[in-house]
Design a protein that fits this description.
The chain has about 500 residues and is an alpha/beta fold. The protein has 21 helices and 14 strands. Strands 2-1-3-4-5 form a five-stranded parallel sheet, with helices on both faces. A five-stranded parallel sheet has the order 7-8-11-6-12. It has a two-stranded antiparallel sheet with strand order 9-10.
């Protein structure tokens, strides 16, 4: 039985009881849920029940009292998108064609050829799903055009506080500095601020300052003249000029070199740029939104970032909280990404199981929203039913977890070996006192590594046991340990870090 059909409900309307029984007997063994009515009035009454699931309608055109066409006309007010297939006699083909013009998907001529009807049902369902996807995509495009590229999803006080600041300062022309961990959504906020500003009709230009080699970054930002350097075969306007009358988002600005910081400071102060290889100063009208995951106050103290540039950029500071500090936002974000990637991947996944939700809430998400989005996308791709299970998150990471386990064990082994070597060397040389400082450093490394190793081991063992339906022998054999060791690790996993 196909999972695609298990949740599909076919509604049959025909005054011939034999036809209703025939269609029920044919479709139910093929995985469809079938409900039948012998008159249009009863079906129409049931259709008004919003909790009643209807996926496709098969109706006779010639019905007592209310005709099939009148029935469908009334039904469209209640369920306007419901796919409809008509059953018709040969002498009513013209009526069936009229029904097609009025929105029906297909019609079948009596006597009913059941395989043909099955093809019509599958085709109608496929077209219906495509139309749903197109509608949702159009809505997304409309939202993107009218508001901003990505929604800011969350209800935690910390996020709402940051969003409130963004709303207040968006209409101004002040420079904005956004701080937060990698993957927390700094560019999403930057796009939101641009979309809510008076510059929203202008371009939004983004650049990751750490992703471009230093010798090319100046040309990317300010542009260059033809022949300014080897490879400059034609002039380039640069990103500041490209963002004219709009916003320029400088991501990871903390990675700029000091010479480039000096040139950027001059641009911020004078609102003019000079292309590489030119002497002409060109005025610009650009709002600068900068961001970094670094603590620029510390960078300034360490002389790695110019204090004067920091003050120029940090006019309006906005801090984006990391995801682990706002757990109430995890499930709304996950459900948003589920809907997004189910649509993009033509997946039937619509919800998370209880175990999957628990996993989502308990995960630390060190990579923040970006990591969560990637995990949900992977689970949607791996899922084969309408419900995303815990295994859909873990199955793709099982080998990675095992490799991390091995790598962590190797680090511990290497570190322990180094400690032993130092102690042994000191003893051999007749040194009365071992270098305690070095030994403590290595011991601390071991201590800090073991909890992460323990977590990896515990998660992998739980996953392997669940995947094998609780079979301990099979699990032990699969992960390469004996049954006794498996029991020991399951019952006393914390002993590894004690």
């Amino acid at each position: 039985m196909s999972d695609d059909k298990m949740n599909v409900k076919i509604v049959v309307v025909d005054d011939d009881v034999v036809v209703c029984d025939l269609l029920t007997a044919y479709f139910r063994p093929r995985g469809y849920d079938v409900i039948s009515f012998n008159d249009a009035e009863s079906a129409l009454s049931e259709s008004e029940n919003k909790n009643a699931k209807w996926d496709i309608l098969i109706s006779d055109i010639l019905l007592p009292q209310m005709s099939g066409l009148k029935f469908v006309e009334a039904l469209k007010h209640v369920r306007p998108t419901l796919p409809i297939i008509f059953i018709t006699a040969k002498n009513s083909v013209e009526t069936a064609v009229e029904a097609i013009h009025n929105g029906a998907c297909d019609f079948i001529i009596k006597p009913i050829h059941l395989p043909q009807l099955l093809v019509s049902v599958e085709r109608a369902l496929h077209i219906f799903k495509l139309n749903q996807n197109i509608t949702e995509l159009r809505q997304q495009i409309k939202t993107k055009d009218n508001r901003h590229a990505e929604s800011i999803i969350g209800r935690s006080p910390k996020l709402l506080a940051a969003l409130n600041i963004a709303k207040k300062v968006a209409p101004s022309n002040a420079n904005i500095f956004i701080s937060g961990e990698s993957g927390s959504g700094k560019e999403v906020f930057a796009r939101y601020i641009h979309a809510e500003s008076n510059r929203s009709k202008g371009p939004f230009v983004a650049i990751n300052c750490s992703a471009i080699p230093e010798n090319l970054l100046e040309s990317e930002l300010f542009g260059h003249a033809k022949g300014a350097f080897t490879g400059a075969v034609e002039k380039k306007i640069g990103l500041f000029a490209a963002a004219e009358n709009g916003s320029l988002f400088l991501d990871e600005i903390g990675d700029l070199s000091l010479p480039l910081q000096a040139k950027l400071l001059r641009v911020v102060q004078e609102r003019k740029i000079k292309r590489v290889g030119e002497n002409e100063m060109r005025p610009i009208n650009v709002r600068i939104i900068s961001a970094t995951h670094k603590n620029l106050s510390v960078e300034v103290l360490e002389k790695r970032f110019r204090e004067d540039l920091f003050f120029r950029l940090n006019v309006i500071p906005i801090n984006i909280p990391n995801l682990r500090s706002r757990p109430e936002d995890i499930l709304p974000l996950a459900e948003h990404f589920l809907k997004k990637y189910a649509l993009l991947n033509n997946s039937r996944a619509t919800e998370f199981s209880r175990e999957a939700k628990k996993y989502l809430l308990e995960n630390l998400w060190k990579g923040n929203v970006r990591e969560l989005e990637n995990a949900v996308e992977r689970s949607v791709v791996m899922c084969t039913t309408s419900v995303i299970e815990l295994s859909d998150f873990l199955i793709n990471s099982a080998e990675a977890a095992l490799e991390t386990n091995r790598a962590s064990e190797a680090v511990v082994a290497d570190t322990t070996s180094e400690i032993n070597t130092r102690v042994s060397s000191a003893t051999t040389m007749g040194t009365a006192k071992v270098d305690s400082y070095s030994s403590e450093v290595f011991a601390l490394t071991v201590y800090n590594t073991l909890p992460e190793l323990q977590e990896v081991i515990q998660r992998y063992i739980e996953f392997a046991v669940n995947r094998n339906g609780g079979a301990k022998d099979r699990t032990a054999k699969e992960i390469g340990i004996d049954r006794k060791t498996l029991y020991k690790k399951m019952k006393n996993a914390e002993a590894l870090i004690q």
